[in-house]
């Protein structure tokens, strides 16, 4: 391991990088490979590869049970799951969303000719600010999509009250919130439905995948048909649908990863605590905290670099990248600064001061089962060195 004593030990100043191989933020966690291969053998034997297969059904039941929710409708990815949920809910016109989220939240709307209207966030929670949402409601508004950013629940109660007051649909992009809770109740039980992602970079993955969780029988049935082109029976199409099906091999991955989920959450939590402990004396940086009375998955280690820090967030990211530590500036620069939204709403930023501020401050650090305590200490030493010796 290289020594990290002075700034001249940093790769940005010409030293060799701390890691030979890149240290990724989104390294997939993978359960028992042996069990997965057993499932793969069974899939080949059965010659049933997709279309509501037995592993898919078992997977859906287990995910629904895990979240204590009535229905899990699994899909090929989280973005298509969002699109299908939006369509099944009948959203039209304008839908209010945060800009501080992954671009898929906004694209899932604009892809179906619905206008995402960006509301500002609370700078402490990084989630939608209900007062800001209220200001964006117009006669064209049909719904609100809250995002449980970093797995921390959006202000569910206040958003539901707004939705009730204005007769709007409410759903959640819960892509980050698999296995998390709000006021002791598992995510999946709020709004009309909630969408999770099982992408490879999520702490729980099915290679690619996603699902809609809901307690609404009719909505669940509509989404099941819509993910299969709208077919109801062999030759009868009753919805405008798409191909959103999850394949058997993805469900198999989900089943083995579900069996390993406790270990992954424990590892993520330990990683988070290690970062928290070691970064606590670094002036001007802080980690986003989790409410310990809730269930958390700790999949994102989110560091904020304040204006008091002697270096900027971008300087820290540049220094980390030079060391082969591929920390990420999620979700900079905010959806409103990306195409097509920046062309459609060139002045949106004026109403999104907290979004702009937070997007400029956040850096997401590597975690998961592929990183160890020693790696974390190196990451922290580099952050310490570049923030103390600028
Ligand atoms: N809503 C929200 C709030 C979301 O965050 C997301 C997805 C969605 C909706 C949509 O769900 P999906 O349709 O994706 O199911 C990544 C993921 O692609 C995306 O799923 C995720 N959010 C987003 C937060 O992160 P990128 O552009 O950062 O991906 P990429 O390819 O740069 O990978 C991230 C890191 O992971 C890199 O350091 C490389 C590493 N990696 C990646 C893959 C795919 C691996 O080590 N192994 C891998 O297999 O978006």
What small ligands are held by the chains?
A: ligand T4K
The amount of beta strand, in percent, is: 5-15%
Topology as a string of helices (H) and strands (E): EHHEHEHEHEHEEEEEHHHEEHEHHEH
Biggest sheet, strands in spatial order? 2-10-9-6-5-3-4
User: Oligomeric state of the chains?
Assistant: single chain
The stretches of 5 or more residues where confidence is low (pLDDT under 50) are none
Number of DSSP helical runs: 13
Rg from Cα: 22 Å
Task: Tell me about this structure.
This protein is of the alpha/beta class and 390 residues long. Helix content is 37%, strand content 15%. It has helices at 33-46, 54-66, 78-89, 103-110, 130-136, 156-166, 217-226, 248-259, 261-279, 313-322, 341-344, 353-359, 373-388, and strands spanning 23-24, 71-75, 94-98, 115-119, 141-147, 169-173, 181-182, 185-186, 193-197, 210-214, 285-287, 301-305, 325-326, 362-365. A 7-stranded mixed beta sheet has the order 2-10-9-6-5-3-4, with helices on both faces. β7 (181-182) and β8 form a beta hairpin. The longest helix is centred in the C-terminal third of the chain and has 19 residues, at 261-279. The protein is globular, with a radius of gyration of 22 Å. The chain binds ligand T4K. Ligand T4K binds at residues 24-28, 77-79, 101-102, 104-105, 147, 173, 175-176, 197, 199-201, 210, 326, 330. Residues 24-28, 77-79, 101-102, 104-105, 147, 173, 175-176, 197, 199-201, 210, 326, 330 line the site of ligand T4K.
């Amino acid at each position: 391991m290289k020594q990290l004593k002075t700034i001249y030990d940093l790769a940005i100043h010409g030293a060799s990088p701390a890691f030979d191989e890149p240290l990724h933020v989104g390294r997939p966690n993978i359960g028992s490979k042996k069990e997965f291969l057993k499932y793969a053998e069974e899939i080949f034997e059965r010659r049933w590869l997709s279309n509501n297969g037995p592993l898919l059904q078992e997977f859906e039941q287990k995910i629904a049970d895990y979240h204590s929710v009535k229905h899990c409708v699994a899909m090929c990815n989280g973005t298509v799951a969002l699109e299908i949920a939006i369509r099944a809910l009948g959203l039209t016109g304008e839908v209010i969303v945060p800009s501080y989220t992954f671009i898929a939240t906004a694209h899932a709307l604009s892809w179906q000719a619905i206008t995402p209207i960006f509301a500002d966030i609370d700078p402490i929670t990084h989630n939608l600010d209900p007062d800001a949402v209220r200001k964006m409601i117009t006669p064209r508004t049909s719904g609100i999509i809250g995002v449980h950013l970093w797995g921390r629940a959006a202000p569910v109660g206040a958003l539901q009250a707004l939705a009730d007051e204005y007769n709007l649909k409410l759903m959640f992009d819960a892509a980050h919130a698999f296995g998390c809770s709000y006021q002791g109740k598992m995510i999946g039980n709020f709004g009309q439905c909630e969408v999770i992602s099982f992408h490879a970079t999520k702490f729980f993955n099915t290679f690619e995948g996603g699902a809609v969780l809901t307690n609404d029988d009719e909505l669940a049935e509509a989404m099941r048909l819509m993910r299969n082109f709208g077919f109801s029976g062999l030759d009868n199409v009753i919805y405008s649908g798409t191909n959103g099906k999850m394949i058997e091999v993805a469900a198999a991955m989900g089943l083995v990863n579900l069996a390993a989920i406790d270990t992954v959450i424990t590892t993520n939590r330990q990683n988070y605590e290690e970062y928290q402990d070691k970064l606590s004396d670094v002036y001007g940086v802080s980690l986003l905290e989790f409410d310990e009375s809730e269930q958390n998955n700790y999949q994102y280690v989110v560091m904020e670099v304040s204006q008091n820090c002697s270096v900027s967030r971008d300087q820290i990211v540049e220094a980390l990248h030079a060391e082969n530590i591929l920390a990420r500036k999620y979700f900079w620069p905010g959806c409103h600064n990306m195409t097509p939204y920046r062309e459609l709403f060139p002045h949106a930023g004026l109403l999104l001061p907290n979004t702009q501020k937070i997007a400029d401050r956040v850096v997401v650090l590597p975690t998961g089962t592929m990183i160890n305590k020693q790696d974390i200490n190196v990451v922290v030493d580099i952050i310490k060195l570049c923030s103390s010796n600028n």
